[in-house]
Task: structure prediction
Amino acid sequence: MKKVRVLLAKIGQDSHDQGIKVVAAGLRDAGMEVIYTGLWQKTTAVVKAALEEDVDVIGVSSLSYEHLLVPKLLDELREKGSNIPVIVGGVIPPDEARALKDAGVAEVFPPGSSVDSIVKYVKEIVTKEKPGEDLEAAT
Result:
């Protein structure tokens, strides 16, 4: 049985990583494998890591402006022929959250979102994207 693999990233100059570490722990507790790229990543590095690690979902955490880089990340994924779902969490104004969804982000989790809701969504999106695969954390 294959574990669900999630890559978590902090792109841009944001160095606030407490939230992403909490989400990483929650995903691991739910039986998923989590790859955390660390701070100050470029979108190209995140795409490369996601493809090399064969992840099922990419999660990006943003505290200030970094979510504005996510459309570039989505474009780079598409250029590589990948449709890995991307979720974003953090401090994101509602109008910018709508723009992210319009650009192709699967879901946006604002401050106050529970780790359980993120875990549930990741399970749902992976089950939807990979029907019939025997994924450990997708049930």
